[in-house]
Structure formats: C-alpha cells, structure tokens
Amino acid sequence: MKRKLMTWTLICSVLLLMLPVHAEAASEKVTLKVLAYTQEDFNKNFGDAFTAKYPNIQFKVIPTQKHKNLDEIRKLEDKEKPDLLSSESLSAYNLDKYVAEGKLVDLDPYIAQSKSIKLANLNQNIVNSMKVNGKLYTLSPTFMVKGLFYNKTLFDKYKIKYPKNEMSWAEVMKLAAEFKQKAGSPGFQYNNDLFSLAASDIAGSYNLRFQDKNKGGKNITINTKEWKSIFDMVVKAAKKEAITTKNKAFLAGDAAMTVGGPLFFVGFKMEKIKFEWGVVSEPVNPAHPISSAYGANNMFGISTESKHADAAWKFIEFVNSDDFAKGYMKDGELGSGLPTNECCKKWDNKVDLSGLYRLAPVKEKYDPNIPDISEFVSKEGSAAFTSVLKGTQSLDSMLDSLQKKAQSELDKAWAKKGK
Question: For 152-271, where are the E strands, in sequence order?
Fold first, then answer.
C-alpha cells in the first residue's frame, strides 16, 4: 500500500527548478541494480527524481512483486546481486545479520565527506535505530510513525485544552470522555475493533507482546496485570461512549481525536477536510516513552559486491538530502512516512509535525523460527472482547480463556516444528 501512495510528478518538477544549469553528474554512465516492488513504484518514489539530477546514472529494477515472502526475496537478491540493498529485504529485524555476513558497506566515511547531507540534520531516533556496533550501514529517507491527531476547531468550540506530546493513554481516554460529556459526541475514533486498540496500539506503546518472544517464544503472556489494566481502560471508555469505531468519523469532523500513521495525510488531501487540525506524538507509557510504529521503512545500503559503490552512494546521499525532503513534503501525501531529514517539519507550511519526531522506535530482533500466532489471537480476542463490552462475559474470564486457547494454539505450532 505504502509503495503506491507517493506521487512524484510535482516533486520532480520542483527539483528540476532547483537545479543549477550545470547539474552535477557522474563522469561515466552507470547502471545500478536494485530490488523494488515494481519498477514503476521505484521510479515514482525515488528513481525519477534522482535521474533528473544525475542523468548518467540509471537503474535496473529487479521487481519483487511476485515473490511471496522474505526467503524468496533473499534468493532473488543472491541471484541478481544488486548494487543497492533495499527494504525489500533489509529491516530493523535482520540488519545485524546482514552486517555480520559482510554484505553491507560502512557508510560512515561517505557521510563524513558528504556536502549534501549532515548526520545532525537527520532524525537521531531513526539514525540510532539503524546503527550496528556503532556504525551506519544504511540510511532511510523516510520513517513510519504514529501520532495523536486532533480537531482544533472542535477543541476551540468547546473550550477544551489541546492534546500534548507524550500523553498517557489514560489521559487520552479521560480527554475523550470529557469531550463526550461536553460536546455529546465521541472524543476518540479508532479505525478497527476495540480489541485491536487495546492489544495493538496501547499494548504496543507499552512494548507488550502476546508471546514471550525474547525468552524463546513458547509462552503466551496475555493474562497478566499489565494486560488487564489496558483492556479495563478501554472497557471503561467504551461504556462512557467516549470511543467510536465509525469509519472516517475523525475526517468527517464527528470525533475530536484519533491515532494513526502517515496514511492520515493522504486522507486529509483526499477528503478535503475543512476543519483545522493538529498532531502530537502518539500516546505513551509515561514510565518509558517509545514509538510503537515501525521506524525506518525505506532503508538503502551499498552491497559489498557492488562495482559502483560511489554511484550507489550518490543515490543514498540524494534521497536523504534537504532537496529530496522538501520535494517530498511539498507533495504532502506522506504515505510512505515522514522524511528522516528534519529540514521541514510542517505540513502544507502550517501544521507543526515536530511531535512526530520525538519518540524512538523499539529495536527488536526477529526470529523466523518462533511461530507467530498473532492472527489467531486477534480473531479469538476480538470476538471475546465484544462479549466483555456487551457485559455477557467478565474481563477476567475473557483473559483466562484467551490465554488457554492461545497457549494451546502456540503449542500446536511448536509441535509442527518438532520442538
């Protein structure tokens, strides 16, 4: 989805106008190989803007669209040997492994000599999340983030104080209930069911997981005091009718707040909303404020097997530059995340986005050997939580039952692996 949302027609035009008459170019023609979802997506997102400035550097895109999983993409990568390694295979989960295998060039010497980018101008939370043993082997021009969006027009109308950065979820739910009381409409809208709000968004801010994946991943951990307090918070807010799951309620001006990612910027343009809005950081666990969002999502690194490392660096340097970030912000959709370069933190030159740069993502290691039963838990949990909200089942009973069902499912998944 993210790959199809960025439209670069305007960006290319802006960048071309910004170029000097004699644009810097590589001394010889070079073709860089890179894996991307499709050639069209890569060109729209990055390639067209880059080749406008460096016409002697072209791209051969190896499409991954028809490849089903990461294993297939890794095999394609090993076969094609791209010059640029990308987020088609790279992620925060496996970056350490790529470095350990000697597949990525150390970018620190290139960064030190760069005139187009300064490391201090890039969001340090994202930069630090990509470091391996203190060094940078990748940079990402964009990052995924969540924020608490709010309708300033409604807040002003009912004389309620605006949300602030790093609010706790309890504070947000209290504010939503205040809105319901004063305005008669829900203070908070969520795009999915309320089990997902508790188990995904809120639990993510507390770095809680269904499984103890950091301890082997063989145990379900959902029937705990921490989990119960989260579900209880949502139940109480729902009973006060402070939350709605009505589609587009926030964009329609019928709800005062919502939590979402960069796709909301796309919605603001498509829906042509007429109210004033603002955004602050996503709600957090006050004891340990973190971002529950993914973080760097368009990593690029230089393969140690590439014969065109300097040309590959020109690309990485360009997409992390001020010029690229300004063009991206001018487009305004931000479907692929916020620019990592902090040169321009305002949407449409008026809405302050600085709150979205405050929180650091959690750097987790992904172990493909651990069974993932999150889909099962979400399906079972959604049905069970509905009965809690209707008052036909107690929260304690729900958590106990879900714990047992999920553990049984997890045991079966491990048994299939023979472990």
Answer: 188-189, 243-244, 257-260
pLDDT tens digit string along 83-92? 999 999 999 8
Q: Average of pLDDT values for 143-163?
A: 96
Q: Between these two residues, 13 and 259, which has the higher pLDDT value?
A: 259
Residue in the structure block whose two tokens are 């069902």: 405
Report the amino acid identity of residue 184: G
The string of pLDDT tens digits covering residues 163-204 is 999 999 999 999 999 999 999 999 999 999 999 999 999 999
User: For residue range 300-341, what is the model confidence (pLDDT) as tens digits?
Assistant: 999 999 999 999 999 999 999 999 999 888 876 788 899 999
Pairing of strands 351-352, 135-136: unpaired
Q: Which of 238, 210, 246 is nearest to 226 (CA)?
A: 210
Predicted TM-score (pTM) of the model is: 0.89
Close Cβ partners of 380 (under 8 Å, ≥ 6 residues apart): 402, 405, 406
Report the distance separating Cα 136 and Cα 132, nearest Å. Answer: 6
Token pair of 199, please?
A: 């188990």
Left if phi > 0, otherwise alpha if psi is -120 to 50, otherwise beta: which for 136? beta
| Contacts made by residues 262-270, CB under 8 angstroms, sequence distance 24+ | 262/2, 262/144, 262/145, 262/334, 262/335, 262/336, 262/337, 262/338, 263/1, 263/5, 263/335, 264/147, 264/149, 265/332, 265/333, 265/334, 265/335, 265/347, 266/5, 266/333, 266/334, 266/335, 269/332, 269/333
HSE value, Cβ hemisphere, 13 Å, CA-based, for 76: 22
Query: How far is Cα 209 from Cα 232, in angstroms, rounded to an integer?
Result: 17
> Which tokens in the block code for residue 377?
């838990």
Tell me the three-class secondary structure of 309-327, residue by residue: HHHHHHHHHHHCCHHHHHH
